[in-house]
Queue: 2 jobs
Job 1
Amino acid sequence: MKTGSFNELLPYLDRYMALGTAMSIMDWDANTAAPEEASEYTAKVLGILSQERFCTLINPSVKEIMGRIDEESLSDKEKAIFKKLKKEYEKSETIPADEMREFGELCSRANRVWQKAKQENDFSIYAPYLKKLIAYKKKFATYAKKGEEKLYDILLDEYEETFGMKELDRFFGKLKAEIIPLLKRISEAEEIDDSFFYQDYEIEKQKEWNHFLAEYMGFDFKRGVIAESEHPFTTSWHNHDVRITTHYYKNNLTSAILSTIHEGGHALYEQGVDDSLTQTMVGEGASCAMHESQSRFYENSLGRSEEFWVPLYPKLVETFPKQLMDVPLEKFVCALNKVKADFIRTEADELTYCLHIMVRYEMEKLMIEEDTPVEELPELWKQKYKEYLGIVPENDTQGILQDVHWSMGDIGYFPSYALGNAFAAQIYNTMKKDLPVEELLRQGKISVITEYLREHIHQYGASKEPRQLLKDLTGEEFNPDYYIQYLKEKFEKVYHL
Ligand code: ZN
């Protein structure tokens, strides 16, 4: 007879949540307001908090209570939390504490060296660190390995549960077959003129406009804040305090607009989590990919459509008359969808984005499954860019050194970005059957669309798994064909192919 009650876990779970919130407030501060020289000292505080947080959850008392709890007697919400808790336990028990600490230290050093390597365009100083990071990740995966499992599958599972190489190979295989030929046809088509995006756009006016845009999208300023940072991001402490950042460039109108819409999409998700779940282990987005599905849906499916801009564009022209007076709406939207194979993932257009991810997926497979020596990676990177995007990076700064992820020990993360796009397309396909999406956008009723997403996805936080959310909403299993179909239809139209 099991005598434990879920309530016995609550003091531990609350403390875990509170320490996590404190850490993310400091992280927010470090990225938006903290002075330049604070980082090393603040890192010490974060290290201590992180250790405290870990021990709050992973300790004999919690384990003893868990052992006394009868899972069958739990509510659905409690079951979901219990499952997360068990996963944290499994992870912590497979990796020895001293190795975990060493790995943490390695990551923070590797990150600093990566920044220097990127700045100086010198892969060789970063290579020994990347080699060590790969070795640690492989060792950790070996600890967790059951039976015939592949190591890279174990790493992938950390970021997007149950989406392994078998499914991803099929997914990227389809992208390769359909999108690379499409990109080739586009590169032969007439180039779209987007030069008017790069005139002088006064920053103060941009700020005002982006504030208005976030409000229009439904971002709740009573429960959220917008600030500025070098790289835009979203952080959520609970559903009543969700923060996004954007970055303004004087000679680029759309960079801030698109990141406001993107981060706004993440924020609507977090603000939409139900009150009963927030501040629990399942009180946030369901997964990396599901989160990205929401941000990309707002950014690309809505934010780059003509219908979205029908109610907004006149106000944008009013704000920047000199620059946009002679640019009709159709031309503006067409320029938003310009495709150009380029080197940098974070600046990629909607079509080529997935190819950038495919390169990284294949590189990670080489690193983990094929034991490819790190010295060979920069050249392989260049070859893949040539093969898939038709361009060769001139140096490693615009090649293999561009992303921060590996230097932070995140190997296996990238595919979730591409999966997010595919989730978004599948969701959109169903949404269009349920709602007159284009009509709603024209009428400025974007709130109806957000309400739909809230009802089917946002409110559940992580209490339902991504596959379940997709199935409950669309009536079928994950199906990447919708994404490929969406891209083909959209870009054949944009480029009149
Ligand atoms: Zn995002």
Job 2
Amino acid sequence: MSVIYDKVAFIGLGLIASSMFWAGQRAGVVGHATGFARTQQTRTTARDIGLCDDIRDTLIETVLDADLIVLAVPVGAMKAVAQQIAPHLKSGCTVTDVGSVKREVIDAVAPYLPETVHFVPGHPLAGTEHSGPEAGFATLFDNRWCLLVPNGAASDAVERLGRYWRALGANVDMMDADHHDRVLAVTSHCPHLIAYTMVGVADDLRRVTDSEVIKYSAAGFRDFTRIAASDPTMWRDVFLSNKDATLEILGRFTEELFALQRAIRTGDGDHLHDYFSRTRAIRRGIIDAGQDTEAPDFGRRKD
Ligand code: NAP
């Protein structure tokens, strides 16, 4: 495949940026990659594992001359990063982000970017519960969706970013920011909150059950603990910045939970059976859409 961007700058060197780097290496679509993370420790780790062609010690050095700048920091850190890099961006470059929430990121970042820069927000729907530069691997985005929010950007900049994501292995779709936040509240944000809650409840009951919760943890609870091991900073920022959509979906969730609670109390087996039949069909739809595969390997892979 031929080079799509001569110079890419990754701000934030965690799971997502490192996976993007390795996937870009695999595809051969990036000429030169620079990277920056907040702490010296992360920058040293990145250098040690060969992440990016060049790890820089300041944000500004990292973005100078870049054709594509990827903001891969927690959602709450996007504004400060945009403010600092804005005066140093090359005219005609593209800025994108990978944040899990889109409206708040656009509101935080767009006001600082000069008109000569294309801003095309994005969100790859792929991840693991692991964080940091060593968590990334080249196949993370294979056959996963990456949603781009054109947000009025020039169509050739959007098309080029889409081509880059497809080269990283993803399927690309366009979506409006508010719609994205609503869809993700249902498919990702609220499920994470429910997992955090369930693991918290189990922890509260630990003294009653001794260590049995851990010893006999069957698949359901084990899956919850995996989800609830996700990065606390990232998820704090997701809920604080997608407040309206998450609260709306949680309201609906609570209503449904009460209805199920009532069915259990009143012995309404038909209600429970109908409900579980409906949800089983949803699972089948996910399998048919090829979106049920686990991330194959959480280790670092270059190819
Ligand atoms: P991560 O593994 O926790 O890494 C975050 C990176 O951001 C670290 O390198 C950290 O540097 C850096 N960072 C934090 N604050 C910074 C700042 N103010 N300036 C510069 N660098 C800063 O995170 P991730 O999982 O890759 O997530 C990154 C973004 O992708 C988030 O916005 C998240 O919402 C989104 N996302 C995550 C997933 C997922 O499943 N993980 C999926 C899709 C999208 P230090 O290590 O030096 O602190």
